Every structure is written in structure tokens, then in C-alpha cells.
Amino acid sequence: MAKPASISVHVHLLSGKTVSLNVEADASVDDLHQRAQKALAVGRGILLTSSGDILDGAASVKSRLQSGDVLTLHQRQTQVVSATGFADGAAFACILGDGSSVAWGLSGFGGQSGAVQDRLKNVQHIQATRSAFAAILSDGSVVTWGNADCGGDSSAVHDQLKNVLRIQASKAAFAAILGDGSVVTWGHTQAGGDSSAAQAQLQDVRQIQATKAAFAAILADGTVVAWGDTGFGGSSNEVKNKLQNVSRIQSTDHAFAAILQDGSVVTWGDALFGGDSSAVTGQLKNVLHIQSSDAAFAAILADGSVVTWGHALSGGDSTLADQMNPEIGVLYPVLLFFLLR
């Protein structure tokens, strides 16, 4: 029996707004997609079948659909990521509503993605070093571009980058957590791009945090593995015995601070950047959350008070604020509310 000259489908948004369209059977899914966007008065998105499959825009309507099919035009929130670069340049990368990605800015900082543009489809998340980008696709693979020395070239680990869940970045290297809890790194070796010395320990990884040139991973058992430049927190050997039952890690440019399940805090890295919290150890109890600047930490305690340490010019000394604002304690619970939302 011959295929009908046209096919009638229903396209709806998650809001419930629906439109019925008649489209030529030989037309492409892209043609249907554009008509649906115009009829629904929305921007770019992804066409999904009733079973949740993404429709390939190049396919013909008659090869994938039949009259009466119900489709969803799913729109993602636009995400913009920046490669901060140096003082003389930077670039941006953006995930569009249809899951594609565009980049702009200086090419040496990742501002041109033309070489990988045809692979930037169904992008879920983008991470950036100072001059390169890494995009996680819906199938768990990764596409990179930008300065090769800063992670823009992942060809050496391409075959390992499968089922990627999350990516963290230092200034010049990337670290990817895979579905099995293992970690793959690439980029500048002195910025954490070489994790070979720690690879045997990097199993069942749950979270990775980064300074400018080092990484720290929390394992499922609550212990921590660090690697990268030791001047940036790449070695936690001096506090290894204290790093038990770790729940979260925060970082400045050169140091890490770990919150333990009992509410205490362990720090390591460059002392001038918050790596030494010995002066306030007695106060760091019942810590709920830690925020950081480039060279200092601020911890919010359960009673709403705040403890700071690190470089004074980066916020490591809050005594002046306490003296100038005797009622500042009233604001701490408000700060806590916004940071923990």
C-alpha cells in the first residue's frame, strides 16, 4: 500500500500547548521541526517521540512517523560557559535549546568550534579550562576543542571517554567521572592532566573538585585522592589520616577545604590561599557549608555564624566586618538560606 502524500502529527510542549500539523511524507524531520517551532511560537528545541527517542533531523518524515503520532518539542535551558583565558583574551561556548552548541571569541581560547561542529549535537553539559572546552553528549561521549595544551585535544583518551557523567576542570586540564566511578584525565600534566600516579586509587569516585592546577576526588568510602601540582593542593599526604568521612570539598585557586560528616574541616594546599586553617580549627565545628574566593574560605556554622581564613585581602579576615557591623550576626542566617537553597 502506498504511503500517504501527507502525514498528520500532534506536537506539544511540556506546558501543554499543542499544535496539529500536516506535513508532506517526503519532507525532512527538520522541516517538521521548523514548522512546529513557528506554530508554537517558541525557539529551538528537540523533537521527541512518544517513547522519548530523539528524532534525527535529516531523516524523512515517512521513515520515522505515521499519522496520529504525538511528539514533544522539548526546550532546554540555554547554558553559557566561558574560558577565562589570560588578561588578553577569552571565549564563550553556549548550549542551545536543541542541544547543539556554538562558540565565539578568540580561536586560541576555544572561540572557534568549527572543526568539531558536526559532532556537537545533543550536548548535555560544557566545562571549560582557561582556553579549552569539553562537551558531554547525551550518549556519554565527550567532544573537546580549543588550546590542545589546556585540554582542547582529548584524542589520547578518546576511547576511554564513554559513559561520562561529569567533568571538572582546572586551569589547563580536565577530569571526567565515568559511570563505573573511574576517572579519565587529559590536558596539561602539571595542572592535573596526568593522574597516572593516583589512577589505582581512583575507584568509586563520587565528586571531584579543582584548584587552578590540581584535583581532589571524594570516593564512595568518604576518603580523598588528590593529584596535580603539589603547590596547588595536588598532594593531601600530610592530612590523609584526617580525610575520613568527607562529605564535600571546596577550593580556592591553590588550596582545598573538606567538610567531614561530623561538621569539622580539613584543609591542605598553599597556606596563603587557605590551605592552613590551624588558626581557626577550634572554631570550625558544626560546619554546614563553605564558600571560597580566589585565596580565602568562609565557613557557615550551624548557629549561623561565619568563620573565615586565608589571605586577608581576599576575605580571609572578617574581623573588621564584625566590628563595623555589630548586628551582622542577624544576616548570617539569611546568607545561610541563600547559599544552601
TrEMBL record:
Transmembrane segments: none annotated. InterPro entries: Ran_GTPase-activating (IPR051553), RCC1/BLIP-II (IPR009091). Coiled coil: none annotated. This is HERC2 protein.
